Amino acid sequence: MLTYRTGAAGAPSAARAMSEHLLQQTLSPEMAAMAEYYHQGLSPPAPAEAAAARYAAETSGGRLLDGEFLDELVAREADRLAESCTDAEGRPLTRDAVTIGALGAFVAAGMVERDEAVASLHRTGHGQAGNDGQSLGDRLDSAGARARAGKDYSSATAVPRRDMNPALAGRLGIDTAKALTAGEVANLLNGQRADGDEIAGRQKRSATEGIGTVFAMDENRMPTRSELENVLSGRKVDGTALPVEVARKTVRRFQAVLGARQEVLTPEQREDILSGRTATGVELTVKQYHERMDTSRARIGYVDLTFSAPKSVSVAWAFAPTGAERGMIHQAHHDAVGSVMKDIEAQVGRARKGDGGQEGWEPGSIGWVSFDHYTARPTVEVVKTDRSGQQYTELHTFKSAAGRVAGDMQLHTHTAVFNAVLTESGRMGGLWLDQLDGRVKEWGALYQAYLATNLRAHGVDVVLDDRTEMARLTVVPDRVTEHFSKRTLGGTAAARAYAAEQGLDWDTLDAGRKIGLLKQGVQDPRGAKSDDLSDAAAWRLAAAEIGYEHRSVLRPGRKQTEISRGDRLEAAYQSALPVLDKELQRRAAVEGADARLAAAKGLIASGVESPADVAAITKAMRERGVTQRGEHTSLVWG
Q1: Which of 118, 443, 597, 610 is the most exposed, fewest CB within 10 Å of its CB?
Q2: Could you tell me the pTM of the whole model?
Q3: CA nearest neighbour of 395 among 288, 514, 311
């Protein structure tokens, strides 16, 4: 599966919050060290280096931390460490341990004097000697030594694209041989170089008003037919004329958010839009309609593409009997992501010429940074306001009253693509984001086709699941994947319920109160009793509860039958027909994107060589027809 979200440039607080979310560690130190091998030689920074980068703004100008400000910053870092750090067995660390670890890194980074660090421990109630007889100063010194010489496994590794165009890497200030720090990631997501400077040659575009604001729509009701006729003609809902260029651009945006990909509407699309529906005939509530209309177009800083492995693959990864087998599954996932990203680069890596690409486009190179995550924990979105009055969203990992909640296994990779395209001529442009329309689901299916192909090379039996239309490992029973899929629920529902128990309305609380409740801990929405267990131990316990004993998915003795490209594409075509049939049963007319999606899903069953396979299958659909309710029918490609 592939999902995506965009982030605004020029919003430092939002970029910093997203950077922390992407860098959140989801592995025990032991497993994180194992995963380091698959980061192609990149090592995480030392904890001292990571701390200096994460809190560079607070120590700018050589400022040394002290007093209440130091205590607040240490508490913030301890909160972060408490969510991601575990002991050697994968169990959560005590508050004393994470606090001393945080201060040790601060001292090692030169952010605070040692005596002030000791004073902070006393002020915050962590001034006791260790159980091993070490004095407080010795414990702090030991933590500092580890922070200088160790590796920061408290964060996921931020891996820059290793084969990035050197010229683009230079423009972005990225050393592709090194993992990025939290500060560098935040700067890049904010539309800047890694060091915080502006990107040479990049033109800044200002944000635009929301569509509903431009057309003066009443957000409390649906617009009438006559009002929508005014909108399509480039006027406000009351008929007031708009400047010609504003009208042209905003009408195009209006049509696009309602699903019309071309500028000239078909009669059917126009009728649907005038009736208050999307261009494809989908009914919308008043809230849904104005959510589309009232979003402004901020300057985009990045696109976060998240590639998630099917649950059966994640189960096989989590319960792999050997590290080598777990690594093979991990590498198959990585290689599949890399294959799809090449096609995505070819589509969105186009620097447009003229306003909106009216003069064509020039192909170019794009860059990204990837973060591997291995679990899915309930998260809660909290909207905050920065000092400039700009709103941004923080993602808080769900906690129970007993502390950290063990997450379900979910192998996935966040690939944050920077909104920068460098052409061979040296021109710097932005991503052609319109190319994402109608392609994200296709790329998600293509990722699964590559993943299935990579796993079959090791003898793993992978099929296209008829029900989910996703890749499925046959050796993992459906009841197991369903069990671990149903456990992962949203944290917001649990937070609302907990607030109600306290006599509070979650939706009316301010950001500070919400975060306070989350730190206090709420009831685990999954009913899991595993807060004091590591993720792996919690998974084993859950598997034992349903009587599941995992065995290796590898069948190295199984020889793959060599088939020609023609036979493979024929198998994909036959597998794609029932997928498209389901769509044709729901609606008589489908779009080209639907046919391409069905073709990509067919490749999950047969295997894939390149994205060109998708076009070959849709060509067969045009020439040979498809099925509708099991009966052969022609497909008219309009």
Answers
A1: 610
A2: 0.77
A3: 514
